[in-house]
Amino acid sequence: MAIALQGTVACVTGGGRGIGKATAMALAKAGARVFIGDIDVEAAQAVADSLPGATAVHLDVSDPDSFARFLQQADEAGPLGVLVNNAGIQRTGEFSGQSLDTKHREMAINVGGIINGMHFALPGMLERSRGHIVNLSSMAGKMTVPGAAVYTASKFAVATLSRTVRAEIAHTGVTITTILPSAVETELAAGLDLRGVPKATPEEIAVEIVASCQHGKPEVTLPKWLFPVGTIEQALPEKLGNWVKRTVGAQKRISADTPQSRKYQERLSRF
User: Fold this and answer.
1) Are 15 and 57 within 8 A, CB to CB?
2) pLDDT in tens, the chain (271 residues)
3) How far apart are CA 25 and CA 32, in angstroms?
4) Separation of first and last alpha carbons in the chain
């Protein structure tokens, strides 16, 4: 069911930067009343100050109470029409070299945040038979990305979680779209060696998120031609798939060993 965005309450997590910021701006331009949640509330406030009628809220998506308060504040402006579960982080480096705490924190944000958002948003949407949820996954969730093991696991979880919940709520009037970009030109990917990987801008992702409020398609990849890539990788024997990717230069191990990446990773440790 298409969502008319004019006057609709729309919540965006991780809205202080990158895809979340671009999405908040695009939703506001379409006439939505936007609530911007971010653990860095100063960044969220800066975005809200630039948009008519937008509200910034401190939000830790991994904390159920924090997420509940975020949506309750939005509910005061009207029934929730759109929830964009965008907040996510990426730790880089070999799995064996990362601390257990950082691994669990990454899953708590990237997967736990999606679970919390849908848990609190869906009951009201289902009761009204109206609403749209956008979950940000990644093509990394359908491909092997050495150096980002937990990140890829989290994005795989987001994709399959979304698919299963979609099946449970089919024919209810509530829709869930999973967005699966390749590399996106954000702080998260800054400084990583992504040569040969198709890239998109946050603004391009935001356009697709807003469009999904109308078409409600289950999954959207960016670029769109990437849609079958994950299926092809999973269909190949692992050794053959790894050989093919090494041959075309697509099996590089990503790391945070650049000034831009280190700056991003250091910021993550403050929250």
Assistant:
1) no
2) 789 999 999 999 999 999 999 999 999 999 999 999 999 999 999 999 999 999 999 999 999 999 999 999 999 999 999 999 999 998 888 999 999 999 999 999 999 999 999 999 999 999 999 999 999 999 887 777 788 899 999 999 999 999 999 999 999 999 999 999 987 665 555 444 455 556 789 999 999 999 999 999 999 998 664 555 555 455 545 554 454 444 444 445 555 555 666 666 666 766 6
3) 10
4) 37
- What DSSP designation does 245 have? H
Which residue among 120, 151, 156, 264 is the active-site one? 151
With tokens 């050495």, the residue in question is 146
Give SS3 for 222: strand
Take residue 35 and report the two structure tokens written for it.
């609530």
CA distance 73 to 240: 51
264 carries an active-site annotation: no
CA torsion 156-159-165-166 (nearest 10°) is -160
Distance of CA 163 to the CA centre of its chain: 15
Residues recorded for the chain: 271
Tokens of 93: 């480096």
9-268 CATH choice from 3.40.50.720, 3.30.565.10, 3.30.420.140, 1.10.760.10: 3.40.50.720
Nearest Cα neighbor of 3 from 166, 174, 167 is 174
| Whole-number Å distance between alpha carbons of 270 and 268 | 5
Q: How far apart are CA 150 and CA 59, in angstroms?
A: 22
Residue 95: phi and psi, rounded to 5, are: -55, -45
Helices (H), 3-56: 18-29, 41-49
- Which sign, positive or negative, has the C-alpha torsion 165, 167, 173, 176? positive
